[in-house]
Amino acid sequence: MARTGKASAGGRGFWRVARKRFLQLLLVLILLPPVLTVIYSVVPPISTLMIGRYVQFLWVDRQWVPLEEISPSLIRSVITSEDSGFCQNNGVEWDVLHEQVEALSEGERPRGASTITMQTAKNLFLWGERSYIRKVLELPLAMMLDAILTKRRILEIYLNIAEWGEGIFGAEAAAQAWFGKPAKDLSQVEAARLATALPNPRGRNSAKPSSGHRRLAATNLARVKVAGPIFDCVLGK
């Protein structure tokens, strides 16, 4: 009887310790993103995809440059292509997201509803494979980034950690790899090709685009010309 009581007490003790450790781990996971985000407001971050490649001893080319050293043409093309509401939203385009949820509920295949801020959150804190769990986690992380960082800093981080080819990360590395020039010297056409490569960076060659890629770049150029004041939060009026 005494042994049974000791075993029961030991079991309760084990579960108390396990619960305590779980709550501590949960607290760390909740607090880590905002703490890292504050650090990233001044320190150049790396993405989880880069970390994964480093762990596997795979080649990574990333050369951090400030936003001032990235061509305004690339900034305009990326905002136009990836998130035309970037300067106005709080990190999430709720109307677009709602439309995609409705499309999914009706059995249709939803289009991407990720904003630049959501993509930045994914690149900084989450994994690359698509899943509904990841998409749900992107929402609070994106709103947190938008609350802590300026729009300029969010875009600066995004343009420096986005993947533009196998092992190629950031605008500077992409400009050098595909066009042999610094990111600040990219032409409008080159910028449009890079921007429209982002949805499929390993399948689209910005230096030698396919006919479909060239059409996307041409559409991007046309949209940039009539975009209006959607770049003001990063380029000014």
TrEMBL record:
Annotated family: Belongs to the glycosyltransferase 51 family.
First-tier enzyme category under EC: transferase
Record PANTHER family: BIOSYNTHETIC PEPTIDOGLYCAN TRANSGLYCOSYLASE, MONOFUNCTIONAL BIOSYNTHETIC PEPTIDOGLYCAN TRANSGLYCOSYLASE
Keywords on record: Cell inner membrane, Cell membrane, Cell shape, Cell wall biogenesis/degradation, Glycosyltransferase, Membrane, Peptidoglycan synthesis, Transferase, Transmembrane, Transmembrane helix
EC number annotated for this UniProt entry: 2.4.99.28
Glycosyl transferase family domain mapped to chain residues: 59-211
Catalytic activity: [GlcNAc-(1->4)-Mur2Ac(oyl-L-Ala-gamma-D-Glu-L-Lys-D-Ala-D-Ala)](n)-di-trans,octa-cis-undecaprenyl diphosphate + beta-D-GlcNAc-(1->4)-Mur2Ac(oyl-L-Ala-gamma-D-Glu-L-Lys-D-Ala-D-Ala)-di-trans,octa-cis-undecaprenyl diphosphate = [GlcNAc-(1->4)-Mur2Ac(oyl-L-Ala-gamma-D-Glu-L-Lys-D-Ala-D-Ala)](n+1)-di-trans,octa-cis-undecaprenyl diphosphate + di-trans,octa-cis-undecaprenyl diphosphate + H(+)
Protein name: Biosynthetic peptidoglycan transglycosylase
Topology of this chain in the membrane: Single-pass membrane protein
Localization, UniProt: Cell inner membrane
Pfam family, one: Transgly
InterPro entries named among the record's database cross-references: Glyco_trans_51 (IPR001264), Lysozyme-like_dom_sf (IPR023346), PBP_transglycosylase (IPR036950), Pep_trsgly (IPR011812)
GO molecular function annotation: glycosyltransferase activity
Record organism: Roseibium salinum
Function (record text): Peptidoglycan polymerase that catalyzes glycan chain elongation from lipid-linked precursors.
Pathway: Cell wall biogenesis; peptidoglycan biosynthesis
Highest taxon in the source lineage: Bacteria
